């Protein structure tokens, strides 16, 4: 299964569409088969879900994401696990162990910086 994690350095980014990079992880038989980091190609409504679908992603693991983006991802059959924070490797380990649990989005819709149009301040801890 192929997972996409919006990332900022070695951490899960709190913003799906406004993250600097995506870490793409292939997991088979509870082992990481492949891991690569891709630059965020840009943000506009519906673009990233199609981009990730074309990369073969089955599931997005993120900190925060809007309902519209979730809808676009679901149209491509991409599952969404939201409310995740921490270091990428710790998140992947929890995923493999079956201990990763979806929660509430870490930011309000439309917030975040860069990688798209200007946005409002975010409410997550350490927000922009």
Based on the model shown, name its key terms.
25% strand, globular, 128 residues, alpha/beta, 21% helix
What does this entry look like structurally?
With about 130 residues, the protein is an alpha/beta fold. Helices cover about 20% and strands about 25% of the residues. It contains three helices and six strands, in the order ββββαβαβα. The longest helix has 10 residues.
Helix content: 10-25%
Class by SSE composition: alpha/beta
User: Based on DSSP secondary structure assignment, what is the total number of beta strands?
Assistant: 6
3D shape: globular
Nutshell version of this structure?
By secondary structure, this protein is of the alpha/beta class. The chain is built from 3 helices and 6 strands; from the N terminus they run ββββαβαβα. Strand 5, helix 2 (about 65-75) and strand 6 (about 80) form a beta-alpha-beta unit.
Give the topology, please.
Layout: E1 2-8, E2 11-12, E3 21-28, E4 31-39, H1 47-54, E5 59-61, H2 67-75, E6 79-81, H3 88-97
Parallel strand pairs: 1-5, 5-6
Antiparallel strand pairs: 1-2, 1-3, 3-4
């Amino acid at each position: 299964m192929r997972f996409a994690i919006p990332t900022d350095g070695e951490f899960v980014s709190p913003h799906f569409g406004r993250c600097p990079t995506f870490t793409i992880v292939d997991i088979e038989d509870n082992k990481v088969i492949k891991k690569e980091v891709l630059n965020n190609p840009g943000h506009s409504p519906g673009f990233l879900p199609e981009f990730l679908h074309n990369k073969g992603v089955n599931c997005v693991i993120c900190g925060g994401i809007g309902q519209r983006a979730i809808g676009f991802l679901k149209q491509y059959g991409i599952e969404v696990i939201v409310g995740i924070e921490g270091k990428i490797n710790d998140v992947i380990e929890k995923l493999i162990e079956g201990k990763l649990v979806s929660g509430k989005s870490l930011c309000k819709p439309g917030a975040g910086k860069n990688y798209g149009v200007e946005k409002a301040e975010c409410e997550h801890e350490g927000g922009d």
